[in-house]
Specification:
Blueprint lengths: L28 H9 L5 H4 L12 H13 L5 H10 L1 H6 L7 H10 L4 H14 L7 E10 L7 E3 H23 L12 H51 L20 E3 L6 E4 L5 E12 L5 E7 L7 H11 L1 H4 L4 E4 L6 H9 L3 E4 L10 H4 L12 H10 L1 H24 L10 H23 L4
Helix pairs in contact: 1-3, 3-16, 4-6, 7-16, 8-9
Length: 454
């Protein structure tokens, strides 16, 4: 018994011209991205085109393509090009045009510096829509793999050993080249080619060693400043008490590179960092601050330091710059990796209440402890003691609990749902801009959910 089926007709042409407006539902993310990009001020990008040569793809279309691509986990320029043929949403965004992967990659590389301005403009739009009111901000960092293998790293010790070996081989090749009789030259060996190859490697090693020495000098300056600070504090305690402080004094730092200091030959700006699974990867430390109410990212940057202690200052600086446009934060929530006396003071100086954990949270605290209040704190308590007391109150614990349920889901969406675990671009500046692009894409995806429905 034959059933009744809807006809499948691939041969009859459209009786009326088709319109890309008919391709997507009105509430589709791709349509929303286009609408947001149309509201952005793109003069900094459009004025870069001189108007000579063949017509270029419009920056608004290219930005929409990149934003929607990153918001749906499509990062490669080749995959973006392929999607303009395979995906109805991408066809809508590009108005049925098909920019090739070279054009996409070149546009992304050329206009990376302008993305930070677009990040702020989108937050301003979110505020105008009534979905963003900056208040409590959760800060955290996540390691994102660099576009480089950790196996392509060169340590100071190994560089010195290889340099010594290559220098001896160059001397031997020069000796062979000076001899009129080539009897000592092995069959198949070209002395000029072997000599050029080793000289090229020596030049690369010299450059790598110079980078390691520069990093070692920077580290020594930082460690020396900390050493002098500790010695000054020790001397102050001795003067106050009238007797020498007990315990071993701080050890002065040693100058120069250490044997295990290394540089990556593929992406020298990246660093070996510990990752959550217990291993080490060639990475960058991507920082993000999220508004606890809207879960929109209001600040983001990338650092080469695996430690988060120094990132509070950078976060507060970035938030202060855009406070007039998106609103001022009134509280900062972060785990114990960000806690230090100087960071607490920085928050207080900017009238931001710090909720920086001083220790790791206990997973299963006793029942009475969860509902207890700490004793009153004296008026002369230090800023750190005041913050510690604040975190011990029921109200403070409730506010700090927002950290885990706001910033960690954001990283989960970016890394697990969208699959952004590795930078496509190399170099610190390019990786920083690509992280901005990823955060823009996340915000658009989140804003699409939060948008007021007509």
């Amino acid at each position: 018994m034959s059933g009744r089926f809807v006809s499948v007709d691939r041969d009859t042409p459209y009786l009326l011209p088709e319109s890309v407006q008919d391709w997507l539902p009105q509430d589709h993310l791709g349509r929303f991205v286009v609408e947001i990009v149309e509201q952005l001020d793109l003069r900094e990008i459009t004025k870069a085109y001189r108007g000579r040569g063949s017509a270029a793809y419009h920056p608004a279309m290219m930005l929409s393509l990149l934003f929607y691509g990153y918001a749906t986990g499509t990062f490669s320029s080749r995959r973006l090009e392929r999607a303009t043929y395979d995906s109805v949403a991408f066809r809508f965004i590009t108005a049925n045009q098909h920019p090739d992967h070279d054009s996409i990659a070149q546009f992304r590389k050329r206009f990376l510096p302008q993305l930070r301005a677009q990040f702020v403009q989108i937050l301003v739009i979110a505020r105008e829509m009534g979905v963003l009111k900056v208040g409590k901000v959760s800060l955290d960092g996540t390691k994102v793999q660099a576009n480089a293998s950790k196996h392509h790293a060169l340590s100071w010790q190994h560089a010195c050993r290889i340099e010594e070996q290559l220098t001896a081989e160059v001397a031997e090749l020069l000796r062979l080249a000076e001899q009129a009789d080539a009897a000592d030259v092995p069959d198949g060996m070209s002395v000029p080619e072997e000599l050029a190859r080793r000289q090229e490697r020596l030049a690369a090693i010299a450059l790598a060693k110079a980078q390691i020495e520069a990093r070692a000098a920077e580290r020594f300056a930082h460690e020396q400043a900390l050493y002098e600070q500790k010695m000054a504090e020790r001397a102050a305690r001795e003067k106050e008490s009238g007797k020498q402080p007990g315990g071993k004094g701080p050890t002065p730092p040693a100058a120069g590179p250490r044997p295990n200091d290394q540089v990556n030959l593929t992406d020298p700006d990246s660093r070996i960092m510990p990752v959550s699974d217990g291993g080490f990867e060639q990475s960058y430390n991507a920082q993000a601050a999220v508004d606890t109410e809207s879960m929109l990212l209001v600040e983001q940057h990338v650092t080469q330091c695996s430690n988060d202690k120094s990132e509070v200052a950078a976060t507060l600086d970035n938030l202060r710059v855009v406070a007039d446009q998106i609103g001022k934060a009134d509280a900062l929530l972060a785990d114990n990796g960000y806690c230090s006396a100087s960071n607490v003071t920085l928050c207080a100086d900017q009238q931001i209440t710090p909720f920086l954990a001083t220790k790791r949270d206990q997973h299963h605290p006793p029942l009475r402890e969860r509902f207890s209040e700490p004793p009153a704190i004296c008026a002369t308590a230090s800023p750190v003691d005041t913050m510690r007391h604040r975190l011990a109150t029921q109200g403070g614990r409730a506010i700090y609990a927002l950290r885990k349920q706001t910033i960690e889901p954001v990283f989960g969406i970016i890394k697990e749902v969208l699959g952004f675990r590795r930078f496509s671009l190399r170099g610190f500046a390019a990786a920083s801009a690509e992280w901005t692009l990823m955060c823009i894409a996340y915000n658009l995806k989140r804003l699409h959910v939060l948008r007021p429905m007509a």
